[in-house]
Amino acid sequence: MLDPPNQPCPSAPALPHFRDQSDAQLRQWLADRDAPGFRLGQILRWAYTRAIPEFAAMTDLPADLRAHLAGAFRLWVSKPVAHRKADDGSEKLLLELDDAATIECAVLRDDRGHCTACISSQVGCGMGCAFCASGIDGVARNLSTGEIVEQLLQLNCAVASAVPPQRLTHIVVMGMGEPLANLDAVWNALERGRVALGISARRITISTVGLPQGIRELARRGSQYHLAVSLHAATDELRSRIVPANRRIGLAEVMAAADEYFNITGRRVMFEYVMLAGLNDQPSHAHQLVALLKGRPALVNLIPLNSVPELPYQTPEPSVVEQFAAILRRGGLNIEVRRRKGDQIDAACGQLRRRRSP
Ligand code: SAH
Hints:
42% of the residues are buried. Helix 10 (283-293) links the parallel strand 10 and strand 11 (299-304). The protein contains 12 helices and 12 strands. The protein is an alpha/beta fold. The model is unreliable at 1-12 (pLDDT under 50). 35% of the residues lie in helices and 17% in strands. S-adenosyl-L-homocysteine binds at residues 125, 127, 129, 131-132, 174, 178, 207-209, 230, 272, 274, 303, 305-306, 308, 348-349.
């Protein structure tokens, strides 16, 4: 049985989440109970690589240790309340947390055999990008390390129960929230999650609205993760209209931090550009983007808008996207046009969650 239990344990709210505990904290916890150090590895293997419903299922641990664990921690804090599958292979989970907040995570599959987990970093988002569903009601709170890791484990359960069983191969932090506004928890969750799932840092991408301090902090920590910066416009005037966070940061600062990330990590930065009909999709905008990125070892990801019913923005016609892409290519930029995935399951950030809200 791969699915975690749906019933919260009666004493749930009082107990800390097991997956919020660092190795050092767990080592201390074991030492306080005179348990030998090798138990840590056993417990972590169960908690992170096997979808057991409760501590009692950790069958190679002494019964009293299992009982102690169950008395001290909760093993799961999220429960799937909706699970949607689309014809293109994408799947989306809506998870409910302790405080009844809901978050979204998804699996995206492609024809290269990639099976990519897309995870959220916050409940809602405080960045307020004009076209994005996640930010409509602002940010409620940061997710904890455990709540972020648990999304990976829930998605891993979902793909493991596919026929034939699959494994996650990539992770993108491109769900709800601004990951660099919750950097510690995201960092700890990725460190824990990638080891547990055997996914190398080079197959993991963190997408940010472009918070320079956070970008520099990632580089300082020796990040080997790919960085994606949500650009959406190549001038301050236009970017500040689409991405309100730009008003206090400014493009020059974002680009300087992105350059520094490349210089320190050697990782080519990806720039995401969501195309909004009539607003940032004209040939003049493409030329501005070429001018901004020329000479930078960058990859541009063009993303035709996944339109959000509550918001007034439209997806450009395919011919407009193609014309824009052609200008970028002629300008010497490396580009990819992201195929839309998961339209049927409200896969754009924050959409399923809004659909379920009263
Ligand atoms: N806050 C981070 C990560 C979350 S969103 C960031 O801004 O990068 C991940 C990507 O999805 C971002 O590039 C975001 O601009 C894009 N996105 C959000 N809503 C979208 C929509 N409705 N259609 C297409 N892309 C969208």
